[in-house]
Every structure is written in structure tokens, then in C-alpha cells.
Amino acid sequence: MGSDRSIPSLTADSLNPKVLKCEYAVRGEIVSLAQKLQQQLQANPGSYPFKEILYCNIGNPHSLGQQPITFFREVLALCDHPTILDKSKTQGLFSSDSIERARQILDQIPGRSTGAYSHSKGIKGLRDTIAAGIEARDGFPADPNDIFLTDGASPAIQMMMQLLIRSENDGIFCPVPQYPLYSASIALYGGTLVPYYLDEATGWGLEIRELEKQLETARQKGINVRALVVINPGNPTGQVLAEENQRDIVEFCKKEGLVLLADEVYQENIHVPEKQFHSFKKVCCSMGYGDKAIPLVSLQSVSKGYHGECGKRGGYMEVTGFSPEVMEQVYKLATLNACSNISGQILATLVMSPPKVGDESYESYLAEKDGILQSMARRAKMLEDGLNNLEGVTCNKAEGAMYLFPQIRLPNKAIKEAESRKKEPDAYYATRLLYATGIVVVPGSGFGQFPGTWHFRCTILPQEEKIPAIVSRLTEFHQKFMDEFRD
């Protein structure tokens, strides 16, 4: 006979509270709703006043029609199926430099197979190539032993949070607005997010006096601030830091003993001629600090840039200025996942060492790259202008990255209506926008924003020919919304 005693079922209340606390707005409630609407449209075309859902919520270029870089995919294909390297037809189907690069890479992989585990930091020969690429970019040497290949930048962020956070008394400085993976990871590992507000009035400027103010406030609360996150170019805000500003940030971190976590995954996404990307590694070295004086973690990803290979999950972190004892612990964390995926490792290498002048693929590679980046700049400007033409909306210049983060000044009646529905006002606006137009944006409340202001994040990634229609639909919706709730 079985026991009559009932066994409590697993409930949300019985789960790890740190998991319940973390949120990731980029794939949150609005996106779930959009996916349901998409299913309804497929089952019943014409059920909504739009034909398709336009996912402007996430930096996922290929999902919105961007084509991969031919050279990158040729090398990946040859590495994944090396038996075709020796077939006569391959010479006519693949460029000579992609064939040669695939042979070089396979020689560095254990067993010459992308199905094999690698060293936990990543394949040594690939790390050598990435180090050479960093040196070519910055003009200062890089050590392949400081490089950890990762499944995109996200695992590197989580690894650093896991390493640095011991309890809720440990704080991580994060920009507000911020990429919500940071707030989610800090919550998951039990730390405290210490915000510093970017100055929207100065184009989302990062002010040292704001850092000093927030650091003092945190310390008065007994919080030990351990690291400063800087996202450059900014996500969701799109600003590009000036080198002088970066120097001030480095000095601040050195003075206060903070680890500098430099999220630089949008380093190739610069849309305006007056701005230029400078890595924090380069800035530190140019200040005479070398790679030992400042604990610095630099992040790069194959998901962004002009390549946009989000599904390949490739990236790396360069860790400098850590003691050998600390580096041992970073390596230990890396070993827990065995290694990052090999295709992502290969792609990270190709991003940092693309075709060069004289290579067969160089001209086509350059045309594809420039075509994508120039189109992104045009799309950013079209959306920026369209948003700034809306009543009560202001949008700072999109200097870099893949997003716009306009401020929307909503009527009091709209704010009260949102409150009555127990929604943040910008989330209510985004929901109404979705139902009216099929356009998916992320409410600013998912990223953090200065109290009393409302925003949304919109990607610049829909195909260029669709941007005018998006602006038109958004303009029509916004005018009706403002009229409906006009005070």
C-alpha cells in the first residue's frame, strides 16, 4: 500500500529566489505576446491590421534578413566537412583563401574535427590569431594566454559576476540604462546592482562626478563596489565614448580599485564620421599602464558588428591585470563548461583576422562588410529622424551599436491608464504599439531609466526598404495614441 501522505509539488515559490528575481526584458512579456500574435496571424491571416510581426526588440540581424559574410561561411563549411577539401569541384565552389584558411585552422584543432573538445580557454592557435588581431587593432601587444574563447559575450559576463560576487554586500557598477543581462546576472549571483545614470541631455554622457556620487552612496550603505561595467558603444543608448572620457574612467577605476568590465561587442558599429572606437585595452596601454596595472576584462562577440552571427555563439574575453592566483580561478570556471563551441571559436578568429589585401576574397568581403555597415548607418538616421518628428518624443543621435532609445513624454491620462492596468507606462505604450502595428520594441523600464522618464528601445535592423513603412506605421499609431489620451 502506498502512503496517503501527499508530496508537495514543485512550485515557483519553492525555487531559488535568485532565479525568480532576475529578469531579461529583451525576451520578456512583450516578446511572448508578439509570438502569440504571430501564431494567430499564421492561423488566421487578416486577423490584425498588419501582415507580419517586426521584431525590433533584439540585436539579431540574420533573423531580419541580413545575409552572412561569404568568406566566413565558406571557411566554416569547409572546417565542418573537411573531406570536401580534396575534391576537385571544391576549387570552383570555394575561394582559394577560404580553402587555405580552413586547412590552417583544421591543423590547429585536435583530431582535425570541429566535433572535438578543445582546451577550456579555446584552441591555442586560434587564440594566437585573435591576439594578433587585437595587436593590429590597438597597436599594443596581446597575450593569447589572456584570452578565453566563449559562447558569445554572455557567458563571459556571467563568469565575471560569479567570480566577483560573494554576497549581497558586493556591488557591481552598471550604467542606467543598461543591457538587462547585467542586472539579471547580478541578481542571479546574489549581488547588488549599483546604478550610475547616463546623462541623456548630453547624448548619454558618462560623467565621472556621477560615478563618484553613486560610489559614495553605495559605500555609505555598506556595499563593497567591486567592478565598473562600461558598454561602449552603448546598449541601449548608442553613444560612443570619447577617448578623453575613457582615460578619466580608467583613472577612476585605478584610484578606487575597481575591475573594469569593458563590453565592447559593438566596436565595429560606428555610424557617424566624427566618432571612433577605442578599446579600453588600448587606452590603458597608451596611458602607460601596460596590461598589468588595471584589472580589465574586454568583451567581444561575433553576434554584433557587421557579421551578426548570433546563432553561432562565438566570442572572447581578454583578461588582463589579474594576479596569477586569480587567473587560476577564472580558468577553473572556464573548465566547468569544458570549452566553448568550436564553430564559434573559428568565427571569432575570422572576425579578428578577415581577408587581407591580395586575398581572393578581399574585394567581395570588403563590399559585403561596407554594404552592411553603410546600410545600418542610413537606417539609424531614418529611424532617428522619424522618431524626432513624433509629438513629445526626443531621440539622441545614434552614434553606434544597433539601437535607438527615444524618450517618450506620455500624457497624464495615458500614465494613469497604465497604472490602472498595473503596467509601467512605457510597457503599456509598447503593448498598444504591438497590437496596432505589429512592431515589437522593448520598454525602457526593462533597461532602467532616470525616474520619471519613459523610453523604448528599437533596433535599426529591419531591412532598409522596410524602414519607411515602419516610420509611417509608428507615426500613425503615435498620433492616434496621443490624441486618445490628450489632457
From TrEMBL:
Keywords from the named record: Aminotransferase, Coiled coil, Pyridoxal phosphate, Transferase
InterPro entries: ALAT1/2-like, Aminotransferase_I/II_large, PyrdxlP-dep_Trfase, PyrdxlP-dep_Trfase_major, PyrdxlP-dep_Trfase_small
Source organism (scientific name): Tagetes erecta (African marigold)
Domain of life: Eukaryota
Coiled-coil parts of chain: 201-228
Family membership: Belongs to the class-I pyridoxal-phosphate-dependent aminotransferase family. Alanine aminotransferase subfamily.
Subunit structure, interactors included: Homodimer.
Named cofactor requirement(s): pyridoxal 5'-phosphate
Domain Aminotransferase class I/classII large: 108-473
Enzyme kind, highest EC tier: transferase
Enzyme Commission number(s) of this protein: 2.6.1.2
Molecular function as annotated in GO: L-alanine:2-oxoglutarate aminotransferase activity; pyridoxal phosphate binding
Record protein name field: alanine transaminase
Pathway stated in the Swiss-Prot or TrEMBL entry: Amino-acid degradation; L-alanine degradation via transaminase pathway; pyruvate from L-alanine: step 1/1; Photosynthesis; C4 acid pathway
Pfam family for this entry, one: Aminotran_1_2
Annotated transmembrane regions: none
